[in-house]
Amino acid sequence: MLSRFAIYFDEVARAGSIRKASERLNVAASAIDRQILKMEGQLGTALFERRPQGLRLTAAGEVMIGVVRNWRRELRNAESQLDALKGLRRGEINLAVVEGSAAFVTRSLAAFSRVYPGIVYHLRMAMSAQVTDLVLAGDADFGICFNPPARHDIRVERTLVYQLGAVVLPDHPIATQTEIALSACADHALIGPIEGNALREILDRAWATSVGTPPRFVATASTISLIKSLVLNGVGMGFLTPIDVAEEVATGRLCLVPIGSPAFALSALSLITASGRPPSTAASLLIQHLGAAMAAEPGRVI
After folding, report:
1. Does 94 fall in a domain?
2. In this structure, is residue 82 part of a structural domain?
3. Local structure of 266: helix, strand or coil
4. Which helix (H) or strand (E) segment is 63 a member of?
5. Phi, psi angle pair for 58, to nearest 5°
6. How many CA atoms lie less than 13 Å away from 260 in the CB half-sphere?
7. How many domains does the chain divide into?
8. Overall pTM > 0.85
9. Are the C-beta atoms of residues 138 and 10 closer than 8 Å to each other?
10. How many CA atoms lie within 13 A of 222 on its CB side?
11. Is 202 helix (H, G, I), strand (E, B) or coil?
12. Are strands 237-240 and 165-168 parallel, antiparallel or unpaired?
């Protein structure tokens, strides 16, 4: 139902070049260029600035891309509502998630897709701040992120609150403890997230309060999978959430010992939507499904 111009224009705007858009769409670059030049001729204005380093939207292009993307969102919503009348046999859902929720989300999607096999999912992994931006921009129907900001244009649908913990091998000295003080962790080799990570910010604040000095890491890593791999290979103790290590703890490969320090604040994993923009029927059903799945995870749902 979308015009060729809308599809080509949106992809060129995202890619920043006709060549890259051509490769992604598997359409001849000349065909894409023709559609854009034709529309520029009809409008009487340029939609892109042609630069040596690529294409950049002009002011008119920014207006047009907003119209095109809004049109695409409205079309997806209309298709979803029509599908609801047909028993939701097909549809598309765009969602943005933080890495820490990936295992939980994919497990939930597997169950949901068995009930609604005709729905197509487009998942994007990003940092928490980027997840919020994608939802507000309409590039994601909803998002799952850590500790979203309190804003009037963000609606928090569900939140899973949990205590972070120390992750160690089963033969580690603290593995059998029911709890450990954050200050006691300083006696062990530590593995932490890189600076700028939401978990690292929580850890640094709590460490400053409980220990008084910055944490001394033997290694830092940019992803949860890297932190788990370092722990599994005996490099040291990591700091993660129950969701991050649910599979490894269940199979006995890792142990999660809750941090008992009051300064180690609870963390919140939230499912968010944009205020004033109701999700499509398909997205609403998935949000309900994920909300129920969150209630089954370790922690407290609010």
Report:
1. yes
2. no
3. coil
4. helix 59-85
5. -80, 180
6. 8
7. 3
8. no
9. no
10. 2
11. helix
12. antiparallel
